[in-house]
Structures are given as C-alpha cells and as structure tokens.
Amino acid sequence: MATLNDLTAAIEVLLNHPMGINQYQLANQVAPKAYEAYIFGLCLRAVRELNVTPVLRGIQGRPAPFVFRGSPGKIHTMTKNYGYAEFSINGQDFEVHAGVEFKGTSGITHELDVCIMRADGANKCRNPTTRGDPTAASLIGGWECKFYDKRLQKVLGRAFVGLIDDLGTNIRLAGLCSDKTYGPLRDFFRPQRRPYADFELTPLCPKNEDFFVKRIADTLKK
Amino acid sequence: MSNHDYTPQEALDTLLSIVRQRDSELMHKIQIAIDAGTEDQEEERSGGKKKTVRKYKVNRPYSPAEALDVAIGVLQAYFVETPLFINSALTAFEQAAIGASVKSFAGNVERDVSREDEGKSKEVQIELKTETQISQSDQEVFPLEARPPEEIEKQKENIAQLKKLVTFS
C-alpha cells in the first residue's frame, strides 16, 4: 500500500532532478518561445519530407547564431540578425518566419507565431525601396503557438479565427497549435473553413507531430 | 479497496505544500491551473409527453483527484515538454543548410548556400531583450541547449511514478 512517505519521496525525486525545480526558472522564461521554435522546426521537417533541404538565413547575413524574435516584429527589422528559413519547391521559393507581422485585409497588422510565405513577397518587404509589412496574399500557412500549462481558454479560439479571417482567402493552411487540448475548443474549430485545432502537438505525441508535418508537406506539394 | 493510505485531498495538499516550499512562482502557476476549473455538460429529461432532453453547460471546480492530474500536467510541461521542444527544434535546425550572405532583394536566391553545415549542430538563440524594450534585462538572449535524452527519459519516468501514486480508481 502506498503511503504519504512514498508520495513525498516521489515528489522530491521529481523536483530534485537536474531538470526539475532548478531549471524551472529558465524553462519558465522561454517555454512559449521554445514552443514556437519547436513548431518552426516541424515546418523544416515538412520541407525535408519533400526531399528538399531548408536553408537558414539571417536578415543581416550568416545566421550564426540563429536568432528567434522575442516579440512580434517587422520582417525588414535589422536591429538584430533575426533568422528565417528558405526553400524551393516546384520552382517556387518560400520562406518560414517566426513572430513576423502581416498586414491584414482590414489594414491592421497581425503577428503570426510561425508562418510559411512566398519568398518574393518577403523580398519585396525587405527591400529598402519597397519596405513594408507583408500582405496576407503572400501567406501560405500560419500557426498560432500556445504553450500552455493549464486548460486552453476559449478566447484563444475566437481571437485566432478572427485573425485568420482578416488574412484573406489565399492562406492554404492555418492552425492553433498547443501542447494541451480542450474539447469545447476543438469543437469550435470543427466547422469547415476554420483553422485546424493542432492540439496535443508535442514530442510526447509523435502521431500528432507526424500528422501535422504531413499536412504541411501535402499542402506544399500542391 | 484503495491502494493508498491517503486520500486524493491529502495527496493534493502534500504536493502543493512541497512545491510551495521550493518555488512559490511555480506553485502560483499550478494554483491558477487548478482554479480555472472545468466545464461539464449536464442533461435534464422532461417527464412530459414529448420526453425531451435538455442539455446545458455548467462550470465546476476540479475534484481533488482531477486537480492532482492538472498539477502534474503543469510540472510535466516545464520538466519534460520544454526540454523536448528545445531538443526537437535543435534537431530540425541541425538538418538544415546555411545561407552565408544577405539574400538578394531582387528575389534571385544567391548560390551561397553552405551544404557543409547540413548535419551539424547550429547555435540557436531566443531574444530576451526585445527590439522595443527600454528596461534593462539581466540577459539579452537565451541560448537553446540540447538536454541529454536520458535525463528527459528519467523525468518522464518520475512523472509516471507520481501519476501512479495519485491514481485512485
């Protein structure tokens, strides 16, 4: 029979592990961005599934290190050597970005945590003579990434559906990614033309990862 | 017959008490997750001729057993999932090539891609001091560093063991 002493010992073992309480402060600081980096990485994996090697770039040159934005920013920002990835499929060039702002059809700007866009649209926005926010028309896919340590909130669904609605009809793929799930929110995304509910998207659920990656690869092939 | 000499409430109190002593901020996160409660669907059958079923949602607090599950979910998110996200991202970056120079604005991709970097680990950072931030940061960037998979596995086992000790059904 399990005793309270057994329980206390198990809790202590968990907290005292090198990846327990001592690394919590670090993990807490970057967990949401680490989740975005993970989804960015899944996009790179989707490209590789098509036998294409993605190329990492920095806006100022060689991305060493590759820098993820800490807050939403402009695609042309030169403050730091922010990183992105590029790849070509069927003669068309694309880029993967994180935390870049897009101009919605209403004129307001929206940040997408991770996105795949047409490279010509990105080039135009980086060019000093035509600098600006990328338009929704250049988007191929966009994902909101929510690392959550608690139940997902309904407001996330409403906000993301509104955001995608303002990004026009060119976008082929959109999803709310989270390491957690919530039944009612999944139902909210069920109707046709709503973004996908990419819930429980975590390395702890490899099937969900495979499904997510395949959907991106299939969309890029079209 | 229960395999525990403690109740779910006692188990929850023990877990929260130990976490509170070790890190009050983590404890606060767990408390928020627990206090969010949950939503259930309830049904009410009418006894009239039509015998209709009316369904509606109700909010309720978590039971102690459910709250334990939520609390362990929070610990798993930081102790297991976050290191896994970092390792997964770094693996994906490792398999990419590197473009050495600034990309041409004309749209033609310059042939400057270093294939030698394919398969090599890459230095990846998360910006902590953002471009619009005025206040000082202790640290400007956070370098992503791979965690030993065996350590992550061990923490997964520790989480599984804890879940076993708080499973009452």
| H-E order of chain A | HHEEEEEHEHEHEH
Spatial sequence of strands, sheet with the most strands of chain B: 1-2
- If you average the pLDDT of chain A, what whole number results? 93
CATH topology description of chain A? Restriction Endonuclease
Regions with little confidence, pLDDT below 50 for 5+ residues of chain B: none
In one word, what is the shape of chain A?
globular
The percent range for strand residues of chain A is 15-25%
**Given the helix and strand composition of chain B, which structural class is it?**
alpha+beta
- Helical residue percent band of chain B: 40-55%
Helix/strand order of chain B, N-terminal first? HHEEHEEEEH
CATH class of chain A: Alpha Beta
Largest interface in this structure: A-B, 83 and 86 residues
The overall strand count of chain A is 8
What is the name of the CATH architecture of chain A?
3-Layer(aba) Sandwich
Tell me the count of domains of chain B: 1
Produce the secondary structure layout.
The complex is a heterodimer of chains A (222) and B (169).
Chain A: H1 4-16, H2 21-49, E1 55-58, E2 66-68, E3 83-89, E4 92-103, E5 109-118, H3 119-126, E6 139-146, H4 154-165, E7 173-178, H5 183-188, E8 196-198, H6 206-221
Parallel strand pairs in A: 6-7, 7-8
Antiparallel strand pairs in A: 1-3, 3-4, 4-5, 5-6
Chain B: H1 8-22, H2 24-35, E1 38-45, E2 53-60, H3 64-94, E3 97-99, E4 113-114, E5 124-127, E6 141-143, H4 149-165
Antiparallel strand pairs in B: 1-2, 3-4, 5-6
Helix pairs in contact in B: 1-2, 1-3, 2-3, 3-4
